[in-house]
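Researcher: I'm comparing several assemblies side by side, and this is the next one on my list. It has 944 residues spread over two chains. Same procedure as the others: predict the full complex and return the structure.
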Amino acid sequence: MNAPQTVMAINLVVNGVQVAREVEVRTLLSTFLRDDLGLTGTHVACEHGVCGSCTILVDSQSVRSCLLLAVQVDGTNVETVEGLGSLGSLSPLQDAMWREHGLQCGFCTPGILMSIEGEVRSGASAEAICDEVLSGHLCRCTGYQNIRTAIHAYFATKDES
Amino acid sequence: MTASIDAHRPSLVGSSVRRVNDPRLLTGSGRFVDDISLPGTLHAFILRSTVAHGRLISFESGESPADIVLGPDDIAAATEPLPFVWIAPDQQHLHLPMGDTTVRYVGQPLGITVARTRAEAEDAAELVEMTIDQFPGVADSLAALEADAPLLYPDHGSNLAVDFHIGDDPDVLEAAMAAAPIIVSRRLRIPRIAPIPLETRGVLADWNVGTETLTVWMSTQTPHHVRDQLAHVLRLRIDQVRIISGDVGGGFGAKEHLYPDEVMVCLASIRLGVPVKWVEDRNEHFTATCHARDAVHDARLAMTQDGVFLAIHTKVTGNLGAHFSNVGTGPFRVSGLMLPGPYRVVNAGAKISGVFTNTTPTGAYRGFGMQEAAWVRERLVDEAARELGVDPLELRLRNVISSEELPHLTPTFQEYDSGDYARSLTMVRDRVRAHVPIVDPNPRIRRGIGFATHVEFTGLGPSVMQEIVGFRLGGYETAVVRMEPDGSVFVSSGVMGMGQGIETTLAQLAADCLGVGMDRVSVHLGDTAQAPYSAAGSIASRSMTVGGGAVVTAANTLREKILRIAAHRLEASAQDLVITEGRVCIKGDSSVGISLEELAEYSWLGWKLPEGETPDLEVKFVHDPSNISYPYATHAAAVAVDLDTGQVQIERYWVAHDSGVVVNPRIVDGQIAGGVAQGLGIALFEKVLYEENGQPNSTTFLDYLIPLASDVPDIVMDHFETPAPHIPGGMKGVGEGGTIVAPVAIGNAIAAAVPEIAGLILETPLSPGRLWELLRIGGLINE
């Protein structure tokens, strides 16, 4: 009998870049993104799928990257907060969060941004995002009020353009 | 007296400028401790006790493949005990022994494994054999005082660690109580809760073998304090240790001192001569990081037949956990100190008993003792109103200290500084009166509105006061403000950013004083090799009050020097000059002037200076305030209580507050909104549970609930500003007030909604299960 396979090759697209790596099969997707690819914007705050800080998009669907293994995203298109916008060129959603003071310590923020991004793509309304999607995230600093304000502000600018 | 905004106040203060550090946080470019990697970094896992009470009789690393395994004996031999910081009267224990083999709580760190990855360090830990001889344990503070309770420290003879009075002499107080016509007396409890920053604790330690220096990246609120403690424990000179605290994902009090597991990581790096990283996982965090509160109050409010308050007293039984934390009985003491709140009382005091139990030590958390004091006092006031048959808000207005009576010395030695406490009450009252009540045809939904008010202790503090109360942290802050040769402005302070926006607000102060734009100022915090010394760091709502006050004075002093140099260059009098838009000009004639770039360039060359002026454009100022600063607020909550489920929904929430001069209104609003959300969690959800013997039951986010977006309403806020008279810039602290008042405002609202059970609203959380039980006792459940 063969020894169990402990390492696997995976191919995927991360923020538009083709990536090929060998990973230990037990490696969490969040660990792979942070440690192997250096994408440290994806934060890990509970490792049991409750807090939402590690949320990313896999084929445009929001997922908890702490609840997936890296080998499970072989062949997919992965997007992280690093793909949303850059320091000098924030995305409209990032800019709304900045303008409305929708973050304090900023640790939960990347996950919230990615959840909202995924829901916007699937056509969710501002109300649905504020009422339901945001409740899939723990934020200990803001009390959520300014995040809601930012979501509405973002939709207002999106609808104008 | 309420001050309006000073007409001469520069424009950036009072402006909601966007936060300077947000773009990096929004793009994933922040540098939290786990985001930092050094070449060759190894990863650590901490071995912890899984039993609440016992003795570790063997620790065998055996076949473990780790790069290093350190057990209690290795750790004890290489370290000094960790000194406690706030010492109670007659406190016998002054240090925490490192590598103690007596186990007193689940989560107590016992050893460390280090390997190539965290996963491999965990694998290695699996092979370490620990044998613990288990003893009976006790988790509850009152149970721990029973005669047959297991003793945590048999040599001490009792689980009663310390016992002392504060405020008025007990005999005087008892005489006042005996003479009072009416006494409202209740046993109130504030359960054990946890601060829960979203980023857990973490350390990256790098021992440099060649220079014999230790550089430690750490998620901490108090870099200098941690440095001093770490050097002591590791037997290093302080100048060998450098702490760098980068982005910090929330602190709330949980990260304001050095923990023993953090020492172990540093020790492993020294032993191996390579960088070692450890980041606490959430499961660890629930038992390894300090909890808070856990106090039983037997409290009394004495008054006349007309509802004039005479005296207030509480007997606090406080659960210290398995050993004193760095602040020990501090939170229980502050409960006593702030018990009188904004009310005029003749006598006040508290008896404080600190108790050892087989639980995680309790320490600092947002609201530090004051949330407990507010719960006790404001519930007693509402109960007093109910007994007298008067309106609770009117009873508060009858007893609140008037603005003419300020400054006011309380029987617990607080000299309240400035403000108009009644105004915050009437502002909220007017808001509530304008509120159109929600009409609901369902008779099983009850609605009510509750009020609570407070005055708060912020901006720790005069160093001399710290000495009097035995709190070994200097209370001052230092600022360095420097104009560089290109006219840009460097600001450094010993306070820390952890989400409260202090980098932005300090930049606003410096930019205003120096007449430059925000884009010319950068604020540098958190690196002990660069920041001026700060004994206390960012705790106690002090960063803006004490640290900001230092920046105001340093920047104004630098401004005066710039004006002297410009006066020399322009052959004018310094009094006739202004700095505006990056230029020093003659008042009223902006065509005559000199740019700050040119002035700074020549000044640093040492050219074109007036006689006796030094070339540097740098000022360092140490600000040790003459008093605490005392903000205050009134909150009101409108709640709906479902009599069938015990579910409480907060439908409206109002705050009127005065935290002195507001530097950035949007940031202040954010502090209040976030604080209220944490208070809402305390009111409705949060409680760390233990089995009677000390086994913890709250170790994941499924057992310990914190508020979600759907739980927290938008909050209506009214601000007014009474400057702190003794603080340069006039700021008072604003970080904690929301958390302090919200639980009891919500508790009082539930009592108002369901008066049948008002007398049973004595402890939080008022979770559906707990409230349903109270409703059942009150005969309100259809069975």
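Model: For your comparison table: The longest strand of chain A covers residues 7-14.
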